[in-house]
UniProtKB/TrEMBL annotation:
Transmembrane segments: 123-142
Pfam families noted in UniProt: LytR_cpsA_psr
Species name: Streptomyces calidiresistens
Entries under InterPro entries matching the protein: LytR/CpsA/Psr_CW_biosynth (IPR050922), LytR_CpsA_psr (IPR004474)
NCBIfam families: lytR_cpsA_psr
Lineage: Bacteria, Bacillati, Actinomycetota, Actinomycetes, Kitasatosporales
The family this protein is said to belong to: Belongs to the LytR/CpsA/Psr (LCP) family.
Residue spans of biased composition, Basic and acidic residues class: 73-88, 174-187
Domain Cell envelope-related transcriptional attenuator: 195-348
PANTHER family registered for this protein in UniProt: POLYISOPRENYL-TEICHOIC ACID--PEPTIDOGLYCAN TEICHOIC ACID TRANSFERASE TAGU (PTHR33392:SF6)
Swiss-Prot/TrEMBL keywords: Membrane, Transmembrane, Transmembrane helix
UniProt region (Disordered), positions on chain: 1-58, 73-96, 174-193
Domain of life, per lineage: Bacteria
Name assigned to this protein: LytR family transcriptional regulator
Length: 441
């Protein structure tokens, strides 16, 4: 029969300490003097480093001494937590290093490291949610403001779709929304209605962006068409290109461009005088550089040589001026291409897209002013501005349709006659989304 107290064995080694001397029953161990056993750490042996009365302490290591029985709940709170390692000042009983809070109550890892990770995680989730909410809100706001007034489905006998995306961009002389004072400042006159003042094909594909001007006085075939308003059948006729817009608006203009180029127009965007100036002003102006002074009393253009930032009315005066140009209307289209490229570059630049105080006014002005087709959405509109920006890049192209006779005489006055062979080759390269090799020289 073993006469030793519980927890002791016959071989003289107690469980409470390796190699400890056996104690007779009821014998009590004198507590060690504080400091008689070197302290390992605050989280190691208890404050008094003493052995417990008769076995392992309930809290395991830690406390003033070992408790009466084997530990049931794990290590003590102050040095070891209830379920796992811990420490008041650091790695629990393994050294008390500052900077770590020890294991937490659920044994999930170091408390400090876990807290930092949780804060970072919550911050990232909050940022993602804010961006998502802002993006969705902006999309629906922009979508609700778009003026989808052009029905491309009403266009007859359309060509097959080509590769890439083709836009028809039209600038009109509409004075819509302009006050009398603004009309005087911009020298727009007081003509009623609107006429197509600028007509351009913008193509975006695998080989970059191309911006091709179609002079408004181009002598073309206006195909027969059923008017969407009057319902009358409009007969086929030879006329200037901008006459199609005057006769039956955007739909007949799209029909005429498709008929004469063989290109299918995927999207349509139109802006008037006032809207154009408003977009420029909302953007904070557009920087332009001139090789020589420009003066035109008819449009009001008056610019010194060098680089300068043009406001809305000044920009309108620049793109309208043509009397100083040696090529007349063809020279004006070159200026318009140059300006639209600079405008697109600034609208789609990070300084605009990442600055809400510039982005939202520009978006608001654009959406209020642009008339687009029914299938145009905010994303497609953004892609159009990116394509405009791309025309100025290394892979971009800006040109007029090749011309055989810029002063072709007709019964409708002087017109521009296309070079049919080179024009056909150019439009075929656009349709197939091939690199542009045709020039307008």
């Amino acid at each position: 029969m073993n006469n030793w107290p519980d927890g002791w064995t016959d071989d003289g080694r107690g469980r409470a300490g390796r190699g400890g001397p056996p104690h007779p029953e009821q014998a009590r161990v004198m507590p060690h003097v504080r400091g008689s056993v070197p302290r390992q750490s605050r989280g190691g042996y208890g404050d008094h480093d003493g052995y417990a009365d008769d076995g392992y302490g309930r809290g395991g290591y830690g406390g003033d001494r070992y408790d009466d029985r084997y530990g049931r709940a794990g290590y003590r709170d102050d040095r070891y937590d209830d379920r796992g390692h811990g420490g008041r000042d650091g790695y629990g009983g393994y050294g008390g290093y500052d900077g770590y809070d020890g294991y937490d109550d659920d044994n999930d890892g170091y408390r400090g490291r876990s807290a930092v990770g949780q804060r970072i995680k919550r911050g990232l989730i909050l940022v993602v949610l804010l961006v998502l909410v802002l993006g969705v809100g902006t999309y629906f706001w922009a979508d609700s403001k778009m003026r989808r007034e052009v029905d491309l489905a009403a266009v007859e006998q359309r060509p097959e779709s080509g590769r890439g995306t083709t836009y028809l961009i039209v600038g009109t002389d509409s004075r819509e929304g302009l006050s009398e004072e603004e009309r005087r400042e911009m020298r727009t006159g007081n003509s009623e209605g609107s006429r197509a003042d600028t007509i351009m094909i913008l193509h975006s594909g695998d080989h970059g962006s191309s911006l091709i001007s179609l002079p408004r006085d181009s002598w073309v075939t206006i195909p027969e068409f059923t008017g969407s308003v009057s319902g009358n059948r409009i007969p086929e006729q030879q006329h200037k290109l901008n006459a199609a817009y005057a006769i039956e608006g955007p739909e007949l203009l799209v029909r005429t461009v498709e008929h004469n180029t063989g290109l299918r127009i995927d999207h349509y965007a139109e802006i008037g005088f006032g809207g154009f100036a408003g977009v420029v002003d909302a953007l904070g102006g557009v920087e332009m550089c001139f090789d020589a002074p420009i003066q035109d009393k008819n449009s009001g253009a008056d610019f010194a040589e060098g680089c300068q930032t043009l406001n809305g009315p000044e920009s309108l005066a620049f793109v309208r001026q043509r009397y100083q140009e040696s090529m007349g209307d063809l020279g004006r289209t070159k200026n318009q291409q140059k300006f639209l490229g600079a405008l697109g570059d600034q609208v789609a630049s990070p300084t605009t897209l990442l600055n809400p105080f510039r982005l939202y006014p520009t978006m608001g002005a654009s959406l209020d002013s642009l008339v687009v087709d029914e299938s145009m959405g905010p994303f497609r509109l953004a892609q159009m501005f990116l394509a405009l920006r791309g025309v100025q890049g290394s892979g971009g192209t800006q040109m007029n349709v090749p011309v055989a006779n810029p002063g072709f005489s007709t019964d409708k006055g002087s017109a521009v006659l296309w070079d049919e062979e080179r024009a056909a080759q150019l439009f075929e390269q656009v349709r197939r989304d091939q690199p542009i090799t045709v020039t307008d020289d």
